[in-house]
TrEMBL record:
Family matches, as InterPro entries: Transposase_20
Residues that span the membrane, as ranges: none
Any GO molecular function: DNA binding
Biological processes per GO annotation: DNA transposition
Pfam families hit by this protein: Transposase_20
Protein name: Transposase IS116/IS110/IS902 family protein
Top-level division of the source organism's lineage: Bacteria
Residues annotated as domain Transposase IS116/IS110/IS902 C-terminal: 20-70
Length: 76
């Protein structure tokens, strides 16, 4: 992790709050929290469904008319 990013994150109160929230999640450390803030700046401004879809964690069904396919997880 680039040590210069943490001071930049902590300099902005809104971004610092998002960083603290991410760090409070078990299994999320400073590298993952920083990467999520850098790669997904929309976090904190969208619904949980939108965030899951952006991260590629939401199942997306392939359906058209009466044809129904399997749900797959993709995106992000």
């Amino acid at each position: 992790m680039d040590a210069g990013l943490v001071p930049l994150i902590k300099a902005d109160p809104e971004v610092a709050r998002r960083y603290e929230i991410l760090m409070s999640i078990p299994g999320i450390g400073p590298v993952a929290a920083t990467a999520m803030i850098v790669d997904m700046p929309e976090l904190g401004t969208m619904t949980p469904k939108e965030a899951a879809s952006l991260a590629g964690l939401a199942p997306v069904s392939r359906q058209s008319g009466s044809w129904k396919g399997k749900a797959h997880i993709f995106g992000g």
